[in-house]
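Posted in: Protein Modeling Q&A

I'm a second-year student putting together a small comparison for a lab meeting, and my supervisor asked me to include a predicted structure for GRF-type domain-containing protein. I've never done this before, so apologies if this is the wrong subforum. The sequence is pasted below exactly as I got it from our records. If anyone can share the structure token output, I'd also love a short note on what stands out.
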Amino acid sequence: MSYQSGAYSGTSSGRARGRIVGVPKKCWCGELVVEKISKPDPNPYCRYYRCGFAATERLVNDNHAFKWVDEALVNEVETLRSCLDRLEEDVREITADKIMLENMVIEKIQKKMEREVFERVEETLAATKSDVKKMMLVVIVGCMVIVGCSKLVGLVWSIVGCCMDINNEFGHMIFVVCVLVIVVSVKDNSSLVIVVWFLRQF
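Accepted answer (user: helix_wrangler)
Welcome! Here is the predicted structure, written out as tokens:
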């Protein structure tokens, strides 16, 4: 796209010192850039940016700032798109780091919880084993006591039955000896009362 103003003609590609990206703010000479509208026939009523000094002095074939507005806006859009791409990439990286950090924290919490649960289960199992051993010991001792008592009771009743069946002095003598042995071995008063009751029966 070309630009002409009076005796001046040119393009925006080679007007200023260096390439101007986006909307120009200042010219290289330090003057502010102003917005103008073209009037010649080649590009009628097209807006452009021009160095204020060059526009005031109506300079021709100079290297002061000049750029078409539509070109500047295209550059701005491209610049914004590039910035947006970089921002999206940064967001993806931050999101990936965040997800990785969250996974690490969750994994640490899971390991800690599993370790605590495992320790509690081991403690519970140890306590349960101890209780089971105690109960088994109590059951075994109780069974032995019951068996012993049943045998002792059976032996006593057998002796008593034999003594009752024998109607002579020898049988009574055996019974009295057994009673005396029981009296000597038993120290409880209630047991002595039971023994005396048996003696009275004879």
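A couple of things worth pointing out for your meeting: Residues 69-165 form the longest helix (97 residues). The longest strand covers residues 33-37.
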